[in-house]
Structure formats: structure tokens, C-alpha cells
Amino acid sequence: MDKIFFILYSVIISLIYAIALPFLFYFSKKRIKYRDSIPARFFLKNNPPLKPNGIWFHSCSFGEARAIYPLLDELPNELLRLSSTTQTGYEAIIKKQPNQSRYLPFEPLLFSWLKSQKVLVVMEAEFWYLLFALAKKRGAKTLLINARMSDRSFHKYQRLSWLYKMIFAYIDEVYAQSEVDRDRLEILGAKNIKVIGNIKLGYIPKATKQLSKPKALLICGASTHEGEEELILDAFVKLKKQEPTARLVIVPRHPERFKKVSIMVSQIASTNHYSWHNYSVNEAFNSDIVVADILGELVNIYAISDIVILGGAFVPMGGHNAAEVAQFGCKIISGKYYFNQRDIFSMIEGITIVTRENLAKQLQQYTLLKPSKIIHRTNIKSILESIKREL
Fold it and tell me: What Cα–Cα distance (Å) separates residue 203 from each residue in 37, 179, 366?
């Protein structure tokens, strides 16, 4: 059955790849976001195979890539092989291993691209069947770490439980974020599951430089998505009537939205007679509103913020890592859609959850908010021990 499924899956995914090629070529030319990732992932442009016989870590997003840093720091650098599927994730991994960092090719291309490795370590929910199957068949021990299964994702995955049983057949060990995640992963076919918590609490990025804090209430709208900037700006306008000196920093989650958010802020500033500027032009916080339109500064901004409105949870995106904020004791306001971060949220005191409709009111009552505090850290020792046994 496994052999038949392997062949059928490979044929079907190869047909999908062939049909999609013209569209992929079009998007690679038209969208800056995909200008590097699509040619690398789907055409292998400037994307040679990783060296064999190493420890291969695969992650997707910038946050996931940063979360594996403490694991990488404990392993021989010459054995590290890193891959990602997104531009921001790639930018994070290449800082740790400039010579052996790659975009992960689309599955049919893995037949010729994937070389034998000692260990494959995959972050969270990157369930690529051929990635695990080929790595395992070519001699790698396979680990899924920081595994999670949100309420919404679990119901979707259950509909394809037959596929995930096939995937988990090639995963040797699973390190889950919570007991709930373990139970759900077992239903989908996972085995050898250990619950260790969210590894994003094992390593929390520190500030890389000291910014100058303005002598005013500083609010940070962090990692915002479509539909959240308007909400935060509206709440800020109402707060300004109460606190005229208050200032706001908006940090969009995705670089391709920097321009759109800047235009939005410009219009709000003009209507309300506020000053504003882009952080890439001026790194001071001397305007009413600042749009942080560069990557890598968010933790530095957290360090000087009084209140952080954490994005990704006022729209159903799943939320973002509150631990990066809580290390500085900031007051945190989040929406209710933090389903991808529930384990991290449970390890932090002082997060205020509000609805979209109540954000402005809660912000105006900011003196009642409690400072945040991390009450538990994750131990990554068991993952490291498993990897080192293969060296």
C-alpha cells in the first residue's frame, strides 16, 4: 500500500507542478515578494542541493526560523543544513549558515535535489509528504518539532487523515507544544510524541541595539495584518483626545504591505493633523505615528514600548509570539484569534484579550492594564539529545 501510494502521490504532484509552471513563471516576474523564492523553489535557480551527511533543519516563517537558533547554536556549525519556504524565513536562516541555506524545492524536484542527511528536523506544520518520505528512505532520522494542531487546523486535517497517516509513517519522533496537540497528532497517526512546550519560549530574541525612548506614552501595533492597521489607528485617534502626547509605531507583518500601510497612515495623519514618518527614513520616534518599514527592528521597538497591541489576532491569523514582548514587561493587548499561540499565551501573565469593538475602550483605559511576565520557559534538551545520538 505504501509503495502504491508513494508512486500515485509522486505522479499526481508532478502533474500539478507541470500545470502550474506558467502561472509560477508569471508570479515570479510580477510580484517582488516571489521574485527570489519562486525561481529557487520551482525552477531551482541558484538553489543547488545541500551538502550530504548533515543535520538538516527546515522551517517556514521568520519566527519559526528564529526559534531554531538555540538548537543551531548547540550543534556543530559544519554539519548544519538549513532550508525555508518563505523569503523572510530564508533571510533568517542565511544569517546562521550563509553557505548551506536554501529555499526548499517543490516536492517533485526533491527526487534529484535531496541528498542523504543524518537528521531531518522540521518545524511545526510543514507536512510535505515527499520531504519526509525521501529523507527517511535516504537514511535520515526524521523529527517534527514544535508540533501544533489548532482547533481550526485539526478539523481540516481530519478530512485528510489518510494523507497524514502516510506522512507520519515517515516521522520518527514528534515534539509537541501541548497535551491537546499530542492528542490530536496521535489521532492523525503520529507516534513517539513528547510534550515539551513551545520552543519559541526556549529562545527569545534580545534587543540588538538601544533605541531612544520618547518622553511620552509609546504604543506599538506589532506584526499587523490586513484589516488590523485601520483598527489600531482608529483606537489611537480616540486615545489621542485623552493623551495628546501619545505616540504610535505601526509594524506591518509583511514587507510587501509597507507601502500600503504608509499611505493609510499618511491619510489618517492628514485628517487629524498628526505628524508621521517612515522608520527607514528617520529612526527617531519624534512623530505622532511612525511606520516601521524595515525588518529586524521589532524586538528593539518592544524594548521601549509601554503598550503593545499584538497583531495577527484581531483577524483569524492565529496570533504572534507574545514572549518577545513579555520579556520587557510591556502591557499587552491581543485579539481573540490567537489559536496558533495558545501555548505561549498560557505561559505569560498579563495579556489582555479584547474584541475588535472594545480595543479603543481598552486602550483608553490603559492604566488598568497589568505588565506582562513570562512564567515558564521550554527545555529543548531532549531534542538536542535525539539529534546528537545520530552524529
Answer: 27, 21, 29
Say how many residues make up the chain. Answer: 391
Number of domains, the chain? 2
Residue 212 lies in a domain: no
82 & 163 share domain: yes
Neighbours of 78 (CB within 10 A): 10
Q: How far apart are CA 238 and CA 171, in angstroms?
A: 52
Let me know how many helices (H) and strands (E) the chain has, helices first: 17, 16
User: In this structure, are 177 and 98 located in the same domain?
Assistant: yes
Q: Is 195 left (phi over 0), alpha (psi -120 to 50) or beta?
A: beta
Global confidence as pTM: 0.74
- pLDDT tens digits for the chain (391 residues)? 688 999 999 999 999 999 988 888 877 776 666 778 889 999 999 999 999 999 999 999 888 998 999 999 999 999 999 999 999 899 999 999 999 999 999 999 999 999 999 999 999 989 999 999 999 999 999 999 999 888 878 888 899 899 999 999 999 999 999 899 999 999 999 999 999 988 988 778 889 999 999 999 999 999 999 999 999 999 999 999 999 999 999 999 999 999 999 999 999 999 999 999 999 999 999 999 999 999 889 999 999 999 999 999 999 999 999 999 999 999 999 999 998 888 889 889 999 999 999 999 999 999 999 999 999 888 899 999 999 999 9
Q: How many CA atoms lie within 13 A of 48 on its CB side?
A: 4
Distance between CA 117 and CA 94 in Å, rounded? Answer: 19
In a domain, 389, yes or no: no
All 3 cell numbers of residue 347? 505561559
- Its domain, for residue 188, covers 2-195
